[in-house]
Write a structure and sequence with these properties.
Layout: E1 7-9, H1 13-21, E2 26-35, H2 45-56, E3 61-67, H3 81-87, E4 90-92, H4 101-114, E5 123-125, H5 148-160, H6 176-183, H7 185-193, E6 198-202, E7 206-212, E8 219-225, E9 231-235, H8 237-240, E10 246-249, E11 255-257, E12 262-266, E13 271-276
Parallel strand pairs: 1-2, 2-3, 4-5
Antiparallel strand pairs: 6-7, 7-8, 8-13, 9-12, 10-11, 10-13
Helix pairs in contact: 4-5, 5-7
């Protein structure tokens, strides 16, 4: 797998230089008139050209965010999916996503609607991963409100639907759990090795997703407990439409023999994801 890219948001020329000199592989920035974040020091036409020259001279990629607020009455988004795929490499499918369980649970409906449009060159974006040290401008001790189980659920869903992955916390304060969450190579590989991910079902209490591997070596199966209590989630062999002998859970490394399907007993809001062969 290719190395993880360090992508830094920059809201001003000062921040741009700081990001580049701190080792960023790429930066993304807003352009005046095309950015809903009016509080940021967005770049105008002249400063954008200079920023691009500055970065490219140092081998740093530049991504320009067209982050304009669009309301449902203005753009029925799903009806415009082909238009978005033609003119954008990625687009947000949600308002700002924060560390609240109701927002994460609600993302399952959005992910189901948009997952069919994820493919090389055009990616529905479920927004940043609010993990680790957050809201540092307000409190240097601020930390994500998500439980570890909820963070596994979020990371699993984002990877299964192949959303872009951008971490929204202060990297230098990562604890061991956060670092392992963001650098699990087997889970991250789902983004590059799978295709055609989709849910088998989603109810109020649980969800099950599948994503075939593009190399034909089995498929990924993700099981989610969306309820408020420990729950066993199960898919049968018939649901997986194939003959498989073994499954390996990618967060723990534990193996499970496939007799008649796949089972995971999960705490509330937790998830498991398997590579099934």
């Amino acid at each position: 797998m290719s190395k993880i890219e360090i992508l830094a948001p920059v809201g001003s020329e000062e921040m741009l230089r700081a990001a580049v000199f701190s080792g960023a592989d790429a930066v993304y920035l807003g352009f005046s008139g095309f950015n809903a974040r009016t509080g940021a020091g967005n770049f105008d036409a002249d400063s954008l050209q200079e920023a691009v020259r500055f970065c490219h001279a140092r081998g740093v990629a530049v991504h320009v965010a067209l982050n304009t607020t669009v309301y449902g009455t203005e753009l029925p988004a799903l009806e415009q999916a082909e238009h978005l795929k033609k003119y954008a490499n990625m687009w947000r499918i949600t308002d700002d996503f924060w560390d609240e369980w109701r927002l994460l649970k609600g993302m399952f409906e959005r992910a189901e609607k948009w997952c069919v449009h994820a493919a090389p060159g055009h990616w529905p974006d479920a927004d940043m991963l609010p993990v680790g040290a957050l809201r540092q401008c307000y409190d240097p001790n601020g930390w994500t409100n998500f439980t570890q189980a909820e963070q596994r659920t979020m990371m699993t869903l984002w990877c299964m639907m192949r959303s872009p992955l951008m971490m929204g916390g202060e990297l230098t304060k990562n604890d061991d759990f956060t670092l392992k969450l963001l650098t699990n190579r087997d889970v991250l590989a789902i983004e590059k090795t799978s295709a055609c991910a989709h849910p088998l079902w989603t109810t109020e209490d649980e969800s099950a997703w599948v994503a075939p591997r593009r190399d034909g070596k089995g498929l990924y199966v993700a099981l989610f407990n969306l309820s408020e209590e420990t729950r066993t989630v199960r898919v049968t062999g018939e649901m997986l439409e194939g003959t498989y002998s073994e499954a390996r859970e990618l967060w723990t490394g534990e193996k499970q023999q496939m007799t008649d399907g796949l089972t995971a007993t999960l705490g509330k809001h937790d998830a498991a994801v398997f590579w099934v062969e």
